[in-house]
């Protein structure tokens, strides 16, 4: 049976009517153990359902429920947490939305009203106020129907209208991984746009609830992404991972962040995702039994200690496991803390008491304790984290927090900021509301600014949020970030130098404005240009606010002498080649010239020469890069013997050079002026979690906490372990170098060793030694020792080597 339906695009199509009755599976109630972020697994018959509990993940609604069933479910959820029984405005919002979307269908063939209902249900799971629920039901009516914001304001009040209008504006923001002409954006451009969009969310959303509605909207769209074509699945999933999941994380809403991450991984890396699902499921029963055993053991000890506690155990969500595997360059079998146990107690005092019980029960792994209660994370997360070794020898993580901390961890800002209402539906007093508004602004700014000094300056200026920056749109929906007080001239030069130089006027929000107009947050700016423009005026220098615009205006006046600068630039390049022994004939060829023109944004070679001539570019900048490109295209192929000989020669030469004495950069808890050395068994580098071992007569040996020798240390020897940490972060090592050792497994081939050596050289890595052996089956095992400044640098080196042909795997020794 078919009927005509109007699609989201307004087209009429014939669709097969689906039964919206409950599926048979829904009638059967099952006991479930929920694996965080990874869906749910049926428990075996007869298992107790009060030992391992739900991790609080926002429930995804099953398909094929009718709108009326979903609406009744929504009302039931609201009534579970809301003190008022008056749901008349929610009922009205549902009826208005249903009428506005009547005849529209989604890609799944379901009535469109299903989507806003599911969005409202997600918001109800976050226990948000009724206005937010109403706005969730109405969030698409302005964009997809003929209803206006003014009509919503008349029917539901200015608050709901503001929320709907805010969500509508957010939906106008475009994030494109590919430009409209098909040219792929550079990674820097993508990262810049992603960060700008995250800022745009916070700057435009005058009410934090706008962002919450948008996150709920994106979560439901991700849950139904399978109905979209593959190309759109990829685009939406990447946008979700790069924009929406980070926003949820910044706001501390882990319930949404976790699911967005996992769903993004499912569509961006389906093979990785389903491989994780399969491998984790293989030992499911064994893992469930172990988790239940731990929960029961801990529960019994808490009871004996007089601590009232609620416990749950769960496997960490798939994206978290994937990220750990990728960052640590490990396989799933090498990740030892796949699951965690949560202990939820009543008071902070109970948290520390429970920690004492845990450390009495199990041996803690040194260096793995984190006190986020005393030192909360920036997004208000509080908890005690410790990693211990269970009775079977398997490590696992324990998290201890209060009920309030657990709500904050799950709901983030939604738990700390809600429109509290009395049972009669009246809002709290204005004074309390002001406190909540103050907290909201602080949280928004705190999550957006990493610089503590800027954050404090903001507090001192009476919380004038985003006073030093404005965010505006191009006509195509891209976001531009400009200094406060910027004019259309600043905007024009932020788009392109040529746009600024040819500017003759501007429209803001489709209205002509003067060139000294001050751009406001959310303005849509269009620059008017003319080929007949005589260029910028020197008066513009008194109007612009951005350094970029001032620099480009000054540059235009320098280019008035372009012909002279072209000749001078050409002479400077040739002179540099002669002085450095470079071949101008080899380097000054079209492919290398075009690469430099593209890199520095010049349309022709003469413009680049002029820049060199007037001092805007150094001749060495240009020619050294061209030499690198030439060497890349004309590589010198070395034999394995030559590579090893060069490594040995370079290592010997380095030994002849004076080296500054290293203080190791290690702080050992409670001990000063003691000899400290790095163990050769695991070669720790800054960024690794470390632990000290008190040797007999040779000071303290520093190991990675995941070092095999530390994990397998006999019980009597564990008393000699001592806490240690890096004195500085891995970004602040002052150029100090540390020895790292890796083992590379690859299918042997001619030139393999040369390729690996070249990869290290390209990363400016000093190779200390390289040894290789090959099995009869042709498997090459290469042990390489080299110097790095941090774990981040080491990971970049490993990632580079992984791209080499025939490399199978890499592991740290």
TrEMBL record:
Residue stretches making up the TGS domain: 468-529
GO cellular component: plasma membrane
Every ACT domain range: 741-813
GO molecular function: GTP diphosphokinase activity
E.C. code: 2.7.6.5
Annotated catalysed reactions: GTP + ATP = guanosine 3'-diphosphate 5'-triphosphate + AMP
Biological process annotations from GO: guanosine tetraphosphate metabolic process
A Pfam entry, by short name: HD_4
Bias-annotated ranges (Basic and acidic residues): 1-33
Cited PANTHER family: GTP PYROPHOSPHOKINASE, GUANOSINE-3',5'-BIS DIPHOSPHATE 3'-PYROPHOSPHOHYDROLASE
Function: In eubacteria ppGpp (guanosine 3'-diphosphate 5'-diphosphate) is a mediator of the stringent response that coordinates a variety of cellular activities in response to changes in nutritional abundance.
Family per similarity comment: Belongs to the relA/spoT family.
Name of the protein described by the UniProt record: GTP diphosphokinase
Species per Swiss-Prot/TrEMBL record: Candidatus Eisenbergiella merdipullorum
Lineage per the UniProt record: Bacteria, Bacillati, Bacillota, Clostridia, Lachnospirales
């Amino acid at each position: 049976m078919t009927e005509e339906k109007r699609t989201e695009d307004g087209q009429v199509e014939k669709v097969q009517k689906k039964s919206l009755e409950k599926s048979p599976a829904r009638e059967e109630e099952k006991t479930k153990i929920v694996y965080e972020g990874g869906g749910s697994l049926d428990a075996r018959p007869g298992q107790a359902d009060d030992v391992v509990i739900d991790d609080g993940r926002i429930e995804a609604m099953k398909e094929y429920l009718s709108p009326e069933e979903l609406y009744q479910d929504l009302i039931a959820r609201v009534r579970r947490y809301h003190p008022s029984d008056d749901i008349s405005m929610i009922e009205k919002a549902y009826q208005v939305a249903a009428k506005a979307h009547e005849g529209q269908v989604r890609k799944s063939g379901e009535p469109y009203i299903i989507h806003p209902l599911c969005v409202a249900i997600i918001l109800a799971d976050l226990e948000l106020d009724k206005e937010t629920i109403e706005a969730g039901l109405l969030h698409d009516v302005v964009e997809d129907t003929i209803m206006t914001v003014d009509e919503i304001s008349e029917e539901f009040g200015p608050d709901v209208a503001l929320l709907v209008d805010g969500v509508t504006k957010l939906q106008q923001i475009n994030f494109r991984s590919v430009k409209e002409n098909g040219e792929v954006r550079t990674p820097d451009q993508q990262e810049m746009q992603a960060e700008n969009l995250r800022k745009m969310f916070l700057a435009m959303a005058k009410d934090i609830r706008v962002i919450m509605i948008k996150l709920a909207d994106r979560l439901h769209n991700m849950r139904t992404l399978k109905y979209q074509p593959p190309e759109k699945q990829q685009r939406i999933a990447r946008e979700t991972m790069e924009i929406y999941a980070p926003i949820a994380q910044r706001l501390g809403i882990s319930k949404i962040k976790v699911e967005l991450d996992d769903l993004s991984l499912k569509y961006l890396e389906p093979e990785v995702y389903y491989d994780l699902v399969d491998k984790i499921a293989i030992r499911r029963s064994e893992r469930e039994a172990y988790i239940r055993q731990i929960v029961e053991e801990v529960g019994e000890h808490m009871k004996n200690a007089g601590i009232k506690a609620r416990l749950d155990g769960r496997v960490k969500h798939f994206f978290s496991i994937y990220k750990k595997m990728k960052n640590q360059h490990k396989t799933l079998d090498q990740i030892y803390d796949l699951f965690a146990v949560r202990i939820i107690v009543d008071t902070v005092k109970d948290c520390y008491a429970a920690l004492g019980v845990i450390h009495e029960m199990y041996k803690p792994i040194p260096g793995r304790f984190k006190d986020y209660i005393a030192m909360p994370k920036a997004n208000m997360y509080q908890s005690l984290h410790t990693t211990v070794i269970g009775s079977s020898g398997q490590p696992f993580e324990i998290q201890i927090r209060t009920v309030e901390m657990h709500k904050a961890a799950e709901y983030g800002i939604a738990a700390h900021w809600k429109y509290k209402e009395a049972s009669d539906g009246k809002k709290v007093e204005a004074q309390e509301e002001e406190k909540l508004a103050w907290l909201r602004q602080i949280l928004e700014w705190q999550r957006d600014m990493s610089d503590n000094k800027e954050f404090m300056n903001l507090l001192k200026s009476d919380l004038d949020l985003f006073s030093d920056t404005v965010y505006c749109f191009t006509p195509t929906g891209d976001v531009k970030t400009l200094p406060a007080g910027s004019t259309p001239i600043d905007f024009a030069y932020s788009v392109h130098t040529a746009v600024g130089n040819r500017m003759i006027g501007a429209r803001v929000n489709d209205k002509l404005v003067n060139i000294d107009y001050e751009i406001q947050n959310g303005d849509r700016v269009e620059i008017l240009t003319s080929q007949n423009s005589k260029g910028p005026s020197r008066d513009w220098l008194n109007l612009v606010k951005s350094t970029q615009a001032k620099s480009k205006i000054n540059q235009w006046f320098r280019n008035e002498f372009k012909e002279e600068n072209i000749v001078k630039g050409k002479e400077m390049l040739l002179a540099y080649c002669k002085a450095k022994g470079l071949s101008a004939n080899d380097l000054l060829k079209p492919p290398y010239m075009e690469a430099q023109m593209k890199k520095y944004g010049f349309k022709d070679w003469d413009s680049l020469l002029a820049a060199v001539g007037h001092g805007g570019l150094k001749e060495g900048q240009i020619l050294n890069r061209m030499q690198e490109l030439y060497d890349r295209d004309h590589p010198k192929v070395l034999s394995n013997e030559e590579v090893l000989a060069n490594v040995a020669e370079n290592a010997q030469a380095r030994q002849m050079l004076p080296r500054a004495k290293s203080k190791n950069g290690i702080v050992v808890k409670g001990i000063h002026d003691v000899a400290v050395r790095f163990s050769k068994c695991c070669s720790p580098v800054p960024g690794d979690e470390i632990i000290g071992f008190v040797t007999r007569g040779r000071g303290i040996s520093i190991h990675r906490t995941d070092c095999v020798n530390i994990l397998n240390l006999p019980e009597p020897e564990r008393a000699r372990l001592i806490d240690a940490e890096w004195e500085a972060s891995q970004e602040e090592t002052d150029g100090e170098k540390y020895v790292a050792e890796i083992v590379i497994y690859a299918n042997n081939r001619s030139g393999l060793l040369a390729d690996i050596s070249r990869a290290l050289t390209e990363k400016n890595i000093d190779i200390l030694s390289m040894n290789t052996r090959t099995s009869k089956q042709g498997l090459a095992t290469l042990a390489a020792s080299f110097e790095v400044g941090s774990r981040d640098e080491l990971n970049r080196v490993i990632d580079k080597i992984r791209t080499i042909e025939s490399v199978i795997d890499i592991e740290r020794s």
